[in-house]
Write a structure and sequence with these properties.
The chain has a domain of 92 residues: Double Stranded RNA Binding Domain (2-Layer Sandwich). Helix content is 36%, strand content 24%. The strands form three sheets. The chain has a three-stranded antiparallel β-sheet, sandwiched between helices. A two-stranded antiparallel sheet has the order 1-2. Strands 3-4 form a two-stranded antiparallel sheet. A hairpin with a 2-residue loop joins strand 5 and strand 6. Helix 4 runs parallel beside helix 5.
Length: 157
């Protein structure tokens, strides 16, 4: 995984540009393989590299195009209805959400691809925040972004 993230082809982790996506242990809390060389954390992401990850995935350029169905299945049907899911479902209950979120102490992150099949558009959304009420802020942020995207789409018709 580290080789793919750091490869010249994907550049999802680039130490010359503040790092990016870093995964150094499984999510069950197993031992750390190798911490992020820049930030000394076991899991990390920058907003730019998270957005690039989704862009590569939805355009069929992430590892192999045939894996997109697996990606979509893994990232769909969020088990926890908070952060982006809470905000987007409030403004657009029928939207499909493919996402990954994370929380550590007061750091909150959410990212994903939002698909509105009824209106025929999709977009990538990523946010990282450090605040004790960050999860609530991300929900409000997502609702505003989704309402804005919907309004832009409808006004362009």
């Amino acid at each position: 995984m580290a080789e793919i993230l750091q490869s010249e082809k994907y550049r999802l982790y680039d130490p010359k540009h503040n790092g990016g996506l870093w995964i150094s242990r499984d999510y069950s809390g197993g031992p750390v393989w190798k911490r992020d060389p820049l930030h000394n954390i076991s899991h990390g992401a920058t907003a730019m590299q998270a957005a690039r990850f989704y862009y590569l995935a939805v355009t069929g350029r992430l590892v192999a195009e045939q894996y997109f169905a697996d990606f979509a299945e893994i990232m769909s049907n969020p088990g926890i209805r908070h952060k982006f899911v809470k905000g987007i479902k409030k403004s657009n209950p029928d939207a499909e959400i493919y996402r990954k979120s994370g929380t550590w102490k007061e750091f909150h992150a959410d990212s994903g691809v939002i698909v509105d099949k009824e209106n025929g558009y999709q977009y990538i959304i990523v946010a990282l925040v450090e605040h004790s009420k960050g999860a609530d802020g991300l929900a409000r942020f997502a609702a505003v972004v989704d309402e804005t995207m919907d309004s832009m789409y409808k006004s362009s018709k």
